[in-house]
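Figure S4 source data
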Amino acid sequence: MTRLGAPIVFTQLAWIAMLTTDTAMIGRLGPDALAGASLSLMVFFMTWVFCFGVVMATAALASQAFGARKPRMIRRVIRQGFWVTVILTVPSMIAFQYTPDLLRVMSQPPEILPHADAYMSTLMWSLMPSIGFAVVRNFISSLNRPSPALWVMLAGVPLNGLLDYALIFGNFGMPRLELVGAGIATSIINWLMFLVLLAIAVFAKPFRRYGILGRFWRPDWFQFRQIFLIGLPIAAMSLLEAGFFFSSIFIVGQFGAHAIAVTMIALQMPHITFMVPMGLGQAATVRVGQAVGRGDVQGAYRSGWVALIIALAFMSVMTAILLAIPETFASIYLDGNHPDSSAVLALAASYLIYAAFFQAADGIQAVAAGALRGLSDTTWPMVIAAFSYWGIGLPSGLALAFWGGYEAAGLWMGFVVGLTCAAILLPYRFRRLQKRDYIPPVQESDADQTPRTA
């Protein structure tokens, strides 16, 4: 689990480092620019979460095929994953053009709408390559070789920082494009990373023998349907969780632009630490899926529990760190010379205290969901997410915010309640399946089936 999970975790951390770099540099443009960019980023990220959730089915399917020693099935799963990427991202990119109208309908502060429009106008071009990158990463991870994705992502982080510095502020002889430049930088780097990783998967050993681009235009409708059957509940669950947080940000907008900036800053630290259990959850999907392909019941569940224990240990340490240095972390995202920064900084540090209390629960629910994906069990986790986040967490947060008088802090209390509920119910679901010795059959299209010999 450690050998597989560590590169995936560091890949996730490198990815969030890119977003953190963008946020930190945009913050130098002032709270209004940060608030506008944050809202656009939330709209973008909600869409990304949905698309990413659907293509995450390729990790489970490819891992099961690898465990069952069916290389042709792996190729067909990944090929259909690219098809799904195009089908999902093209309409989304068209819809992104109406982001300011969406924010206006949601009663967001009018002074930040031009900033939101400027950022989204160029950020939207990064959606397709980032989802394509995820498909290729799922492919190489299912073969127990996730390191190339890590090295590509690590190379992208400093390049993204340099492009941000050049295009946002007009350095190195480049024009000062501010938020438009931030989106251009992100899009260019995402396309470069996708193309480089795709080239590795197509031409480098041992990946090239799978020929993932071979007969690219040939459909496999069975695998295409399987990706949606498994992936749509994953996407819905991810959307329910992400929407739980991001809808709260839009609600915070009722308290003014500064409240949005404060909440965005305070969410950065738990978002960074979440990348570790998120990566462990993806590793659990692969390890559990491989065991499913081999028909190894004990190995499948052992892999899931090992990942859960690692996540719990790590997030407990992060809770202690977050409680110790909230002010230090919050100060990264603001220019201390800006007249509004001191008030925003103090409030952000106070919100980070609430974030500390849901770290462990957030890690447990993420890894448990990943382990269940390896079992192709995605419908019940989706139901659990809906109940925990929208049935318990958000109503609690709204009640505390508006009727309890806690305003934005009440919503953070709702985060704690909702994540704790999910952290109890998802491992319980995994344990129930374990008691039944459940593993799903590894299904394939008729074209891939070959007679078994004695």
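Figure S5 source data
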Amino acid sequence: MSKIIYDIYRNVKSGSVSEGRYFGRILQTETLNTAKLARHIAEHGSPYTQDVVEGVLRKAESCILELILDSKKIKIDGLGTFYITGENQKHGTISIAKFNPKTSFKGLHIRFLPDQATEANLSSRSVLNQASFIWAEDLKREKAEERPEGSTNENSLTPDPSPQGEGSENSGSGNSGNSGNSGSQTPTVPTLTISKTGSGSSAVTVGGNAVNSGSQIAAGTEVALSVTPAAGQTPTATLNGSSVTLTESDGTYTGTFQMPDGNATLVINSGSSGGGGVDQN
């Protein structure tokens, strides 16, 4: 039976109303590309071979994009609806005559709305009710018991490196199930050191929860930044010396990065002049 793997972490933010409380985060074992998904479908009672399924999936990808760019919504019954929305520039356009979609829109976003029909309800609460769970620690113990004597190989149980929102949480518990050195069953979780300069304000979060300097975060976890700089200033952020791209909206700059395999240092300057590392397009 399929099970969702979860981990538990403790909120260590001092002064927070939830300080010391425990929260869960969802883990993934891998990301399936089109070819792997096609193979999975072909091996699960499908009358079609993998190459046929993959061909249909790739055609569906291009057709969905073509149709939503033609102002159509695409509803896949039992799954959900794909559609497109526009993000306007911060201050809008002064008149109808001046409106140019190529410049007045800041960007276009492909959206997905889960199907909430009664017979195929994919709302968050319905999916929660349908799901079965297993704690990552229990899964690791099960796998350890199954390994032949003398074997040290462990399967990886890390957060998927692609952006996932609720799947990316702060691993305050210090254990993501990531396999460490040979023979080790308790891996070392990377530590994030945060250095803040400038007269503006900034916040670092994982899954909506604040992260302090010195927090342990599982490798591959998505970390979010939010910076409100001093008036007339442009913020910058670097991770281990490499620039983190920040995007401005209503005076607040946001960005994300994936936690590396080793310890990392994040430097945020909320009051520097110039545009290094900032994307305002």
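Residues 158-187, 274-281 have pLDDT under 50 and may be disordered. The chain has two domains: 10-21+158-279, 34-76+80-114.
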